[in-house]
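testing teh design pipeline on a random one, pls ignore if ur not involved
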């Protein structure tokens, strides 16, 4: 069976790439070469800046961080 989360991620990335290709390219450069821990920290910082608890947000989708 295919990974349903992977399919959702691909759909979201494709939609974002089509809507704002320049920002998509900037984000790709920003995350390129980062480890999983570095990406997690980056996501937590971005979410925190917006007043979002990343663990709670991910939990809504059944994702445990």
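output:
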């Amino acid at each position: 069976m295919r990974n349903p989360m992977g399919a959702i991620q691909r759909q979201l990335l494709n939609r974002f790439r089509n809507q704002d290709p320049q920002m998509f390219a900037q984000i790709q450069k920003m995350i390129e070469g980062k480890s999983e821990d570095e990406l997690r920290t980056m996501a937590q910082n971005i979410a925190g800046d917006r007043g979002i608890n990343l663990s709670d947000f991910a939990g809504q989708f059944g994702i445990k961080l």
